[in-house]
Structure formats: C-alpha cells, structure tokens
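Ticket #4471: structure output looks truncated?

Reporter: J.K.
Steps to reproduce: submitted the chain below (300 residues) through the standard prediction queue, then opened the result file.
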Amino acid sequence: MSKARLMIVEDDPDISNMLRIYFNGQGYDVDLAQRGSEALEKTRQVMPHLIVLDIMLPDIDGYEVCRTLRTNTRTSHIPVIFLTQKDERSDKLQGLELGADDYITKPFDIEELKLRVQNAIARAERESLTDPQSGLPAGRLIEDQLRRLIRQKGWAFMDLRINYFDAFKDVYGFIAANDVLRFAGMLLGEVVDTLGTANDFIGHAGGDNFVIMTSETTAGEIRQQLKTRFNEEVQSHYNFMDRQQGFMMAPDDSGKMEKSPLMSLAVGLVSPSTHTFADIREITEIAAEERRLDAAASNG
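Returned output as attached by the reporter:
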C-alpha cells in the first residue's frame, strides 16, 4: 500500500515543520500550506487522505476552508482534524457542525494527534469512503453519488480503466504501479477542473478502475482529452527502451515472456440520451460494457 498523504495547514512555521518531520518519520507523505487558499488549491491538485487544519489562518479561517471542502463534491469526503488555540465549547461545536472529524487544542500531545490521524484515515477506509492508494472517494461514496445522479437530468457517467496495468505491475513492481494510479488520479482532477465544474465527481472504484460523473455537454471533450493525455504522459513511467520500442516484455499466465503494449486508458461513456436506466446497477454495467468495447477498439 502507498503512503497516506497528510496536508498540514498551519501558518506557524515552527509547528508545521515539526509536524512534517514527525509524520514523515511515521511513514506519511506530508504537504504543508500556510494559508487557507493555498490549502484549497493544493487539495485540488493532489488529494490528501487527511487534513490537519489550523483555525486561525492569515487569509480565510479554518472554518471557511472546511466549509469549502465539504460543499465541493470532489473534496467532501476528506477527513479534517481541527488544530487550534481555542478551547471554547462553541468553537468545537462550530467545527463539528461543518463536518470536521476531530478537534485537538494547542498545546497538543503529538502522540495523541498521531492516533487521531490514524483512526480517522482507518475509519474512512473501513467505511469504504476513500481508496487507500489514491485518496479519492470509493465504494459507498460512489454509490451515494450515483443514486443522486440517476434522479437528475443532463448527466454523464464514465467508467475508466487502465489497459495493461497488471502487466506493468508485474514487471515494474507495486511502487511504480502505485505511482501510475496516483498519476491517473491527478490527471483526472486536472482535466475535470479544466473542462468540467466543481460539482463533477471523481471516484476510485478500486485497482485500476476510476469513475467520473459530469454533465452530458462536457463529457465527450473530457473523455477525449483524458485518453489523449493519459496515453502520452503515462509513457514517462516506462524505461527508455520500453518507450522507444513501444511495448515491454511481460510474463503471461504460464510465466512465458511475451510482448505487452504500453498502458492506455479505456473509457466507457453513458448518459440518459444514449441509454435508459432502471437503477444504478444498470448505469455501471452498461458503462463497463462500453469501456470494454472501447478497449477492444483500441487493441484492434
């Protein structure tokens, strides 16, 4: 499993650097932000598994940062632990009402904070809220979003899968494979941010399988740009020889080495104008079939 990613939002450099050093030593990837606006921008670029958020910030306060995270479809699932000087009951209640997962008061016990971070991340994964590798919404959150989607108009659903991912993992290993999943999640976020809206949803259904829920009007362009950019940019994950020859040698089921194409992205796209759906199961099944047809067409 890849390292969990923390974002520390704290304008006191002594505290933020201390937390970065400590949590790096505990095996976390740690990113720092000194301002609320910086935290929101960084969260859009790379999804953290958890945010430790100071309430008193120089631009917008932590309450506003949390409110913005909770009202954005793509960040509403991220666990937030408030870190503050305040110890008033009303302040704690305000944070919890906004959807914060926990609250710790300065000066704090670093071991206690570590346990709260561990518990919040474990709870999110146990409840199928987030994927442990990408930090993106997973199982139950995807289902909840689909149930909302099917009652609306003008939506589109995309089922995305990375072709030849397993062969890449067999040859290059788990760490390199996790880097590809992280790259894919970041790419989905970039393209949807550019062409879609803040209400669009990106989920990680598990393994090499992702989903996007967006509007019917933008879905086609998002699909095309994702396929083009992924197929080009994923090549940086291969060594020079594999890139140059356009394939790699990978073991088949019997262990015999054979040519395997470089990874590419297959995307199945469905919407109410292309199909009729009775329930969310039909949305996912038909989209998966469209994705398999897309993969077959690419291979052909």
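Triage note (M.O.): checked the attachment and the full token line is present. The longest helix spans residues 174-195.
Status: closed, working as intended.
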